[in-house]
Amino acid sequence: MESRRHTLRHDLVIHVMLGFLAIVTFFPFVFLLISSFRPTVDFMHTFWGLPTVPEWANYRDAWTVISPYMLNSLIVSGVSMVGVLAIASVSAFVFARFRFPGREVLFMAILALLMIPSILTLIPAFLLVKDLNLINTYWALILPYIAGGQVFAIFILRSFIASLPEELFEASRLDGASTFQMFRHIALPLSKPMLITVAIMNVLATWNDYIWPLVTIPSQKLWTISLGIVSFGSQYGGLERWGPMFAGYVIASVPLIVLFTLTMRYFIAGLTSGAIKA
Amino acid sequence: MSATLSTSTPSSGQPAAARPLLARIARYRTAYLWLIPTFALLLVFNYYPALSALYHSLFQWNGANIKLFVGVTHFVDLWHDPLWWESFTHLIILTVALVAINLTFPLGAAAMIFHLWNLRAAYFYRVLLVVPMVVPGLVILMIWMFIYSPNIGLLNQSLALLGLENLQRFWLGDFKLALYAIIFVGFPWVAGIGTLIYLAGFQAIPTELMDSAVIDGASTWQRFAFVELPMVLSQIKLVVILTVITAFQNFTIVLVMTNGGPGTKTLVPGLHLYKTAMAYNRMGYACAIGTVLFFLTLILTYLNHRYLRSSVEFTGS
Amino acid sequence: MSHNGLSRRRFLQLSGATGAALTLAACIPSTPADDMAGPEAEPRVVSHYAQGLTPRDRLETDRWDPPQALWALEEAYKDLHPDVDLEFIESVASGYDEWMVTQLTAGTAPEILWYQRGWIARDYEKNWFNNLDPYLSQPNPYVEGYDSWKDTFQGPVIASGTAPDGHIYLITGDIVGTGFFYNKSKFDELGLAVPETWAEYEEAQQAIADSGTTPFSVSYHLQGGTPLYGSWTTRVFQDVLYDHKMAQISGGTPVSRTWKPGEGLQPPAMVRAIRDGNYAATDPEWLEMLRLMKEWSVHYPDGFWALPTADVFRLWAEGEAAVAWLGSWMNKPVRNDPLIEFEWGIFPKMPTVTQETSQYGGLGFPAMAGVGGVFQYITTTVAEERGVLDDTIDWLQFLTAPPNLIEALNDHGGFAPGVKDTAGADPSLAVYTDMLVNFGAERIEPFDSMLTREFVDAMWRNLQQFMAGELSADEMSSIMQQEMELAAQQLLNEHPDWGEA
What pTM, to 2 d.p., does this model score? Predict the structure, then answer.
């Protein structure tokens, strides 16, 4: 009892400040939820406020339209994420733990890719994907997503793996471990929090991507969810289907929230595992 | 032979540089082998389009029937393009502001979460700060647009309710404030990868280090400044690089909220590039803008890399 | 040697994870969607991006039927041509520029694409879309009583798709209108009538302002606002103020405000006029336009240059503004809005600027309506490569046969038909057609398509600054004069033939 009170006294100021940050940060999310129940006509009159009548049909409509695209998005984002983690963790490990000739040059060559404005490469990349006959396939999304996503992933994972104490590797080397074993049994488990961060960031980016799927996936059957939601909009201001659009955004965010909730557990497990203190 | 596996401590044996290069390459062939998937994908999907864009910056090119070699004309034109310079000035302001923001708010939030004794609460806040990341950027921008709306916007209406009419502004229509209003979008800037990166950094600090600081009688602030902060330097470096890159590339926010206005007060190079390519179809010139942006980012990243020492080196010294 | 561990076997094992991901993806049908290709016996496919006319199912929350006429027309067409399949591409609500440019560049565009007349000058030499003159000069097999397909349209409507080379590349089939939607209840309450002259209008606006209501809801936000309202305001004002000077601008021939094709001052004529100093942003008429616009703007909402376009309607619908400038596409939304608590109407015409208001005044305004809204389609050169150009044209001819076109436009409800035979057209949209027929269209090419796209952007951002009070009229006029000369020169370099009338 005493210690709990003690904890609270220690944490109180932090609670006040974090509480403020959390409330303000949470506002868009709450707004999204409230708006998803507003009739479209409400939006025509004011952007804010509670629904005049809660419009449950927003969700039925949104589901009717976007559910076919949900699976496409799950496949594209899921496969891209697995691909990025697999390829990037290997390369990051190589960059972090080997001093091979050309290491810096190769790393900078990867890093430099982060700095290329994506709008600049839109047309050349599109022509390429077309020449590879990938238009209207999942590959038109997955392959560029893995190729592009790994850049950031390597960048962030490399610095994390590089920061792992050398003694861990030294000790395991003395135990006769192979390089692969070191990668598999030391680097990977210890990088878990970063791997999960990378995974989340990757899914977020691919899940909400709009322009690239828009130009590479003309066939509606293969559309991703962001394309499906934007179809509630209109080129003519005033003709948008606001209600289902906001409900669609909520539905689309459910898989992401599930992902967050599930991985947050591992995230913490990774952080508090004994290995880091060892 | 332990030299293969090392970053911070080059260990026993001859100095690496003394061996013949080819022999060293052969020795590390498996390391190169491990990098093949990465570079195979990059070559096809990243380097090729990027080099293509670089190459086309030397052409007067409209994406279709006109493609004339013009050499560096576009770069000379860019030097004399007043819109480029104005947008570039805005970019500097934006970058400085965003770096400052990302060095404070997410770091502060992560530090506070890290310092909570109540681990359950720490977990709770982390979820609270991270879940809003699922809200798509476009929705956030819409929200802010109608927060700032001069007439019936949430901000001006709230100020009126509080009797603070004299603080009302046209925000995105204010020729002095518009850029800062753009910067303010996303307040308090803690829902994002920055907070996560910092937090992971704090959590990775060896407990012995913290314990010894406590034994030495360091206060909370001293511990933060002299133990924790130096230990997350590599995270700070990372966040700075990411912020600079984002600032240089992201123009969706101004495209949606102001389209560069009022006048040209929020025009940024990315938007200039976008319009030049998509609306004016001056692809060659757009490629030149992109190329310059790329090299500027590269230089900034290099400087950051060079002058912000990472904690890896820190512990090594 | 520690790196012995890094063997090929390990590497393969390692790539197992990647392999698993790729195998997972491989289970998914990844060949191009099967409706895109097929054996010889399969029907020929014409895909059509119909923008706002793209048919779609009605949803529970829809307050009226969404556009579906193209499905019915498709069925009728299939009865006549079982060997042709139509495919409607789902509407692209944002990112259309990127979508269109990439698809046209790569040759993956649909056969029929929605397009805007203002883009023609920029693109017509890129071999992206077809010159339609050969088809337009032949009769439309689905229409009787006209010499040619072209003849079935209202002249200015079809002529608006003319490129600087004199050929028509764009099939335009509709009329887009704008109108001053006014709050009748408010006008009655204040004892105001719909004003006839600008002076009366000014008085009415003053009375409205005095009652604490914003007189006129409009936006000069650079995203949507200025390109819409700045464009309409300048095009109707210029026509009135430059009326006495039209012959001079055209290089001698008088330009009457009619409803006939090709009589307006097209881009080449404007380029010559700018080169010869017959039309300049430093003209007193131009400055007069700026003066009138600026004076009018005191009745606009506070900070109107930062007002999101959606708020133009909101202010009016909530009773905070007495008049809103809305487009004909708002026809259905306004009619079907249960939350509007007042009576409303549309000004039949814009109040006239008389000589009392301006020394250049006197002539009534042209229509606040123009050609080309949802029905502006190009046929892409891809259609030719795929061997379906004739089918593509045939479908468009079928679609523009007046009863079919009217069925499609009535069903959408936001645009009036641009064909001569308007039997059966939605009467609620007649106000826009009447405006065009009675008042005629503006004669000076609108800024949107007068010169280059760079010029349009410069025009709108400087106009916004001027309206917001950041630029004086003199500064604005001298800046725009420079931009005009620059753009005209650039166009003359690109099209030397424009130099001669």
Answer: 0.89
